[in-house]
Amino acid sequence: MKFSDYSAKSVGTLYHPKAEEAFLEGQATHMQDYSKDARKVMLLLVDPQIGFIHPGRPLCVPGAVEDTRRTIEWIYRNIPSLTYIAASLDTHVPFMIFFRSWFRKADGSPVDPFMRITLADLRKTVWPVYDLKFEYEDGKKMWWSEWYLMNLEQTAPDLLHHKQTHTIWPMHTLLGTPEHAMDPALLEAVYFHAGARSAQPNFLVKGDVIWQERFSIMEPEVEFPGHPNGGKNSTFLKMLEEYDLIYIAGQAKSHCVIETILSIVRFFKDQPEVLSRVRILIDCTSSVQIPGVDLDGPANKVLNQLVRDFGLKLVKSTDPIG
Q1: Within the chain, how many helices (H) and strands (E) appear?
Q2: Which CATH number is 8-93+172-315's, of 3.40.50.150, 3.40.50.850, 2.60.40.740, 3.40.50.720?
Q3: N or C: which end of the chain has fewer CB within 10 A?
């Protein structure tokens, strides 16, 4: 069963989603209420937004349209078994520490998109133009950009604590723009599920703290003390324990998906019974492509190690639930 207006060709195209119509059609199926499920199955969608999926957008992920089509069809195929859907929405404004607005080159010109910035670059080849003095200890202050890069580049003791190199991204998923919205065809599937199972979807805003990068749904790359969204979302992490199976899909495998998975593994590393419930829909996620940089290979290596060491499972959207 599926929303009657669904067309595979509409995935990755911009239109006004028929959310209410999809919801009402879902209700008309008279399916069992989600709360009565004996086996609770969750789908966690990572940043399934127009800005990452639709061709022509500055940060469109190659393969994301096909990933999203497979995700939608997985939802429709498994609605009777699917208890709950949560989706993150990467949410940005003009001045962010990973946008070109934050730094300038020595000649005053903007830094380049996809430029990687290290602590060694700071105030030598690039200068922050939007910064603050951060009190990291009583009476001790440092420019936040310096503190941020210093903490980001600390040697990771193991795979679980690895951090991404600080990268300057083109402006994307800006609050209030169409890019910020979920792909319309996917949104209709989420609303169809909501009506069919009487299950409220959970939309999680992330990335709205200008002082930090937040790839993971669960936590930032570097915490920003004092901001309500500047640290770990322990409440949502703990909620995962309630589910018998946790499926993960979305964009991009090399960044927000892999970092979300690492956050889950860090949080539950002493609870292997929880990690054994995690299913990564490997044909429903793809990696960012930056010329001259291999991001997909390292992402796959991390995923394979997590499978081997922590019991997570890589599955395809065509595999049966379980």
Answers
A1: 9, 10
A2: 3.40.50.850
A3: C
